[in-house]
Amino acid sequence: MVSVEKKYGLREYKANEVVWFRKTKEAFGGLSNMCSGYQLEVNGHRILTSEALYQACRFPDLPDVQQIIINEKSPMTAKMKSKPHRIHTREDWDNARVAIMRWSLQVKLAQNFIKFGKLLEETYPKQIVEDSRKDRFWGAVREKNDENILTGVNALGRLLMELRQKYMSESRYDLLVVEPLQIKNFKLFGEEIERIDERMNFVNSLIKGWGLSSYFSLEKLKEFDEASYSTKKDISSSVNEPLFDSPKNGFKAKTENEESEEDFIADKVMLILKYGKAFSSKDLIKRARVSWKTSKMTSFLKKLEGVEVIKGSPLKFKLSQPGEENTLFSNIK
Predict the structure, then answer these.
(1) CA–CA distances in Å: residue 297 to residues 54, 79, 215, 269, 305
(2) 228-263 tens-digit pLDDT
(3) pLDDT score at 132
(4) Same domain membership, residue 175 and residue 80
(5) Predicted local distance difference test score (pLDDT) of residue 200
(6) How far apart are CA 311 and CA 273, in angstroms?
(7) Is residue 214 domain-shared with residue 292, that is, in the same domain?
């Protein structure tokens, strides 16, 4: 059998030349899976740390054990709770654990995009190393004869550097969507783990945090990012400009606020309906998180191009025909 070191490659680092982390309360402690404050949600279940999520993925056939792990408030206790059950660890764990860790980190970033992304950016351009007392696989261990030298596979650090590279690229917003791993039996509480899509939540958080009332999209945000990176100028004035497209010919002119609100809600609705289900107006108000009355949403949906009305009580709505998504997220895979 090929050793872990040979399979993944042993590395040597100088502590004074890298960003290293060990304790969660120290500098860059947020890079640790043990760090709280980066709450996750998978299949509608709240999970306090990426460590608890990773450990729960060991036991797809034992939902009761997954529950014990996820219920623990302490990530270290969650890890310890998994130990008595490790005889029942998924059979392919040795081959799947790196992919599961990569996926867990992607979920952590997608659902804590600004906070965790900022932390990753602060590490650039140095290498990231988990400073471990004894784990030479996920981290690297300081040599007894020279504590400035850390030796190990540093799998966690390397995965974080991989994630940082993607986050700092032009396609950073693609990371708001995390696909389930294409491995056998990838389950949480007996159900297949679903796709995680944080695009709408992210845009909503920006609108709320920045006080934006205009139509705002990830495409506009990309342009905004590119401009700020290329010119390095004050961007505060750009934020206050209306960020919506001009009305199409043939439509009655509306005020900027009316146009932006309806366009933005239309994008939200189309994103929800693209999954092929039918929803009532009340359901869509709740899912899109808008403050419209049911009657207003119903009237709006009846006029919305590409939406089919399903008769009944209450009326339901679905996409009239499947096709490529044409919303504010159309360029995000």
Answers:
(1) 41, 47, 18, 10, 14
(2) 454 433 323 322 222 222 233 333 334 444 445 777
(3) 97
(4) yes
(5) 87
(6) 17
(7) yes
